[in-house]
Amino acid sequence: MKATLLTKPLSHARVEQIAGQFAMPDLLLPFWGYRKKMPMHQIVRLEGEGNYTLFHFVDGSQLMVSLTLKKLESRLSPKVFVRLHKKNIINLLYLKGIHPDRQQLSISLVNGDYVEVSRRKASQFMKQVKGFQQELIELSLAQAVGQPGIA
Questions:
Q1: How many CB atoms are located within 10 Å of the residue 99 CB?
Q2: Where is the HTH LytTR-type domain (predicted)?
Q3: Does the model's pTM come out above 0.90?
């Protein structure tokens, strides 16, 4: 299986910078008796497990929350988060590569996870990735023009 690398993975500093420009607020998640804020830009992947969702963070930590993936999907930034199939949502900021195969499309993330893309969602996923990359290019160009001393 040949990997298609879209761009080199983003640095932590670049992710922090982009998060501010994509309006990625903190998520307010319910816990026993209280609510806790979690930075949306540090989420690499969300994995649905019945009525629970397992968060995978960039630092390698994981967190289980008693909300369904569907309920959380509406709270996430649609420019950055993509649902690959019924069990996974990924953050495009941490996309490392796309791996096409004759029968199955899968992706790799910077944390080492490999996730399959459902056949029904594959073409929409590719459109979202291309749109996201175009926005990143436009952001980079706007920053380069706006900064003095950079040609």
A1: 18
A2: 37-131
A3: no
